[in-house]
Amino acid sequence: MATISVLILSACFLTIYASFFDIQYPNVYITAEKGGNLTIQAGPQQGNIFMKPNGNGTVYIGHTDMLKLFEIVNSLPPTWKVNSAHGSLGVFAGGQSVNLLLEAIDPEGGKMRFEKVSGAFPPGVHLDKTTGRLSGNAPDVDATYEFGIRVTDAHGKYADQIFSIDTR
C-alpha cells in the first residue's frame, strides 16, 4: 500500500512540475522559470553536495566548465629545476658550441613553453621554446649577456628566472 501511495504522489508531483523536472534518458533536466533560482542545499546537519560526472563528463554553470575551472585554480605554477647561484650558465670562448638545457618542472606533469621575456641572448644563440634548450655558437666578443626566461604551463601559470652567459 505504501508503494502505491509513493507512486501516486510521484506521478502527481511530476504532472504538476513536469516543465521543471524532465527526464530524457540518459539526461535529467531541472530548470527554474525565467528570473527564478535553482537552489541545492545540504540538510540542517551541514552535509555535503556532490556532483560526480563519470569518465570525461563535467559540470557546467552557464557556459563555464567548472571542473576545468577548478583544475586551473588548483594547479601550481612550474618551478625551475637547477641553476647556479646567480643564474650564470657559464663562460664560452668565441666560436664554442653552446648547448644548454633550461629545466623546469610542472607539478601536474603537463607541457610547458619557454620564452625570453627580457634581455638578449648572445648573437647566434637561440632558444627552443618547447624544450627549453639554448643552442648555437658563442660570438668572439668579451661580453656578458643577461636575459629573463619565462616557463609557462598549460594553465597559463608561469615562473620567471634571470640567466646569464659570458663570452670571451
UniProtKB/TrEMBL annotation:
Q: Does the keyword Signal apply?
A: yes
As one GO molecular function, the record gives: calcium ion binding
Q: Membrane-spanning regions, if any?
A: none
The UniProt entry, under InterPro entries, shows: Cadherin-like_sf, Ig-like_fold
GO cellular component assignments: membrane
**Extent of the signal sequence:** 1-18
Provide this UniProt record's keywords sorted from A to Z. Answer: Signal
Q: Which domain of life is it from?
A: Eukaryota
State a single Pfam family of this protein.
He_PIG
Protein name from the UniProt record: Uncharacterized protein
Species source reads Mytilus galloprovincialis (Mediterranean mussel)
